[in-house]
Amino acid sequence: MTEPSEREKISLGAVFKLFLTVGAISFGGGVVAYLREYIVRGNQWMDDDEFLDALEIGQTLPGLIAVNLSVIIGDRVRGAMGAVAAALGVLLPGSTIVMVAGILYMGNRQNLTVNHFLGGIAAAAVGLLTAVALQLGHKQLVHVRDFLLVMATFVAISLLHQSLLVVILVIGPVAILLYHPKAHKGGEVKPLETREPVRLGHH
């Protein structure tokens, strides 16, 4: 993992270029997988715990997960300007490509080749997200309550077809109570809770 002193050497250009690359190649919504590959495994600007913290925060905030995660990571490695550079980088390719693709798709939406191509991209994106879930899952899913919360969320959304907002409002408070240090005997914090929270801002 890149230490805080080394992060000061990360240029805004490097941040913008990395997120521009991710924004350009993360077809089908696989941005989380690409970000982890570049941020954690490639440049080592974060470790898995920090990335997971950023992902958890990004998923609980309104808006696109790609933008939320980019802002949090950019802020983590280069402060406010890093957040701006990361957000612009990840948005620019997608915005440009979507406008062009939208125009082209309107005239080719009945084309079987185009539909098969889009289906392949969607399948690849699901594979990427599954890989990331498995890689990060062993750090997060270590207690029975973790699996119970996952299953409750899955059942509520996939089987009962409840709104995501409703699920968050119901399961969120339950998760907070279960993971609060006072919920454990003697106030002892279990290993899962000992991870340092993501430190926002430039240090």
The number of distinct structural domains comes to: 2
Multimerization state: single chain
**Largest sheet data:** none
Q: Beta-strand level of the residues, as a percent range?
A: under 5%
Report on this model:
The structure is a single chain. The protein is mainly alpha-helical and 203 residues long. The chain folds into two domains: 4-136, no CATH class; 141-196. The chain has helices at residues 4-7, 12-25, 31-42, 48-60, 65-106, 112-140, 144-159, 164-179. Helix 2 runs antiparallel to helix 3. The longest helix is centred in the middle third of the chain and has 42 residues, at 65-106. The chain is globular and about 55 Å long.
SSE layout and pairing:
Layout: H1 4-7, H2 12-25, H3 31-42, H4 48-60, H5 65-106, H6 112-140, H7 144-159, H8 164-179
Helix pairs in contact: 2-3, 2-5, 3-6, 4-5, 7-8
List the main descriptive attributes of the protein structure presented here.
0% strand, 203 residues, disordered C terminus, 8 helices, mainly alpha
In brief:
This protein is an all-alpha fold and 203 residues long. It has helices at 4-7, 12-25, 31-42, 48-60, 65-106, 112-140, 144-159, 164-179.
